[in-house]
Design goal:
There is one protein chain. By secondary structure, the protein is α+β, with helices and mostly antiparallel strands. The protein has 2 domains: 97 residues, SH3 type barrels; 287 residues, Fumarylacetoacetase-like, C-terminal domain (Fumarylacetoacetate hydrolase, domain 2). It is built from 10 helices and 26 strands. The strands form 7 sheets. Strands 6, 7, 8, 13, 14, 16, 17 and 22 form an 8-stranded mixed β-sheet that branches. A hairpin with a 2-residue loop joins strand 23 and strand 24. The structure holds manganese (II) ion.
Length: 415
């Protein structure tokens, strides 16, 4: 028997050669001996349980993409545009599948558990949306029990806000419990202290590759020319701080303390088989948002799982999102605001129609009224030491599954 190669990924592995997500890694501290200089960051492509040093493999194979892949960040690849994205992916696919390249490629593989993963791109602007009708309805019922659950604008435009790009952190980064003001309706005055309603929002993030011209909107049809890929995103939210501060200008310190993203970006090209139509619209949308005649469906069938301390608490279905990523891109540029390489936008909390499909503890516990049972006790909101992990998969070609890289984070006490 020939020795098993790391490139012989088991059938059914969601990180097979049909997937090939991109990240940035280093090997210091794991593979290196004590006292080593920290090793440089480089672009990695995940294949099974290994990471391919893409730049080193490209150089060894004499590829024209050696310079683009030999970087410490994905930004130059993101900026290279859609044709380059397609060509690089074709090359990588050949490298990990063609037996003629095997020996060369194997020399540049590292076991996943022997590398450190880093934030793979420099985040430019960060925007977060509010695109699940089920989530928006639940939140409306909780925060505005006497009013309409959905605001009058909700089905006319994708509601969003600008967040804090500097506190977008890679999966695995601890999250410090934020302090801030809160004031329950029954409190006579606001109090200051650690948030007592720290929550998650299970979301999907999108990263922009190709910039756009200031003053020129990006139409729906140009989505794939600008957006490189997607990933899981956890929009940590302090509900008590948020509830007191958000009127009238929206989310601020209840959100800006941390946003976690997966270390792996899945290129949109890997998700062709996961395209689905969004839910039916109640009425025709304004032309710049109207996707009824689009060439292809704008939704993505991503099956998300939310776990706390290893225990599953929800399975939010991304296919149920009312607004698509293409509509969100069209809306956030319709006023002429330009895109930059590295812009990230979040879908908004993903919640389906069922209780077990809700992507936040706010909804799962109905703002703390109904505690959920974990094996280590009841939870309404997060406690110090809790670890939250989002995982997901999507239908791939020929019955395969495309895995999304997890996003995980542990809550540590306020400082
Ligand atoms: Mn959010």
């Amino acid at each position: 028997m020939p020795q098993q190669s790391p490139l012989d990924v088991p059938e059914g592995d969601p990180f097979g050669p049909h997937n090939l997500p991109y990240g940035v890694f280093s090997t210091a501290g794991a593979a290196g001996a004590a006292g080593d200089e920290p090793e440089r960051r480089r672009i990695g492509v995940r294949i099974g349980a290994h990471v391919l040093d893409a730049g080193a493999a490209a150089a060894a194979l004499g590829s024209p993409y050696a310079a683009l892949l030999g970087q410490s960040s994905l930004n130059p690849l993101l900026a290279a545009g859609r044709t380059a994205w397609r060509d690089v992916r074709r090359a990588l696919t050949a490298w990990v599948t063609d037996p003629g390249h095997r020996e060369t490629v194997e020399a540049h593989l590292f076991p996943l558990d022997a590398v450190t993963l880093h934030l793979p791109y420099e985040v430019a602007d960060y925007v977060d949306f509010y695109a699940s009708e089920h989530h928006a309805t639940n939140v409306g019922r909780i925060f505005r029990p006497d009013g309409e659950a959905l605001t009058p604008n909700w089905k006319h435009l994708p509601i969003g806000y600008h967040g804090r790009s500097g506190t977008v952190v890679v999966s695995g980064t601890d999250v410090v419990r934020p302090c801030g003001q809160r004031k329950a309706p029954s409190d006579p005055a606001p109090v200051f202290g650690p948030s007592v309603k720290l929550d998650i929002e299970a979301e999907v993030g999108f990263v922009v590759g190709t910039p756009s011209e200031h003053g020129r909107p990006v139409p729906l049809a140009d989505f794939e020319d600008h957006v490189f890929g997607l990933f899981l995103l956890n929009d940590w939210s302090a509900r008590d701080i948020q509830a007191w501060e958000y009127v009238p200008l929206g989310p601020f310190l209840g959100k800006s303390f941390a946003t976690s993203v997966s270390a792996w970006v899945t290129p949109l090209e890997a998700l062709e088989a996961a395209r689905v139509a969004p839910p039916a619209r109640d009425f025709p949308l304004l032309p710049y948002l109207d996707d009824a005649e689009a060439d292809r469906p704008g939704g993505f069938d991503l099956r998300i799982t939310v776990s706390i301390n290893g225990q599953e608490v929800a399975q939010p279905p991304f296919a149920t999102m009312y607004w698509t990523a293409a509509q969100q891109l069209a809306h956030m540029t319709v006023n002429g605001a330009s895109l930059r390489t590295g812009d990230v936008y979040g879908s908004g909390t993903v919640s389906g129609p069922e209780v077990g499909q809700r992507g936040s503890l706010l909804e799962l516990t109905w703002n703390g009224r109904d505690a959920i049972e974990l094996s280590d006790g009841k939870r309404t909101f997060l406690e110090d030491g809790d670890t939250v992990t989002l995982t997901a998969w999507a239908p791939g070609p020929q019955g395969t599954r495309v895995g999304l890289g997890e996003v995980t984070g542990r809550i540590v006490g306020s400082r």
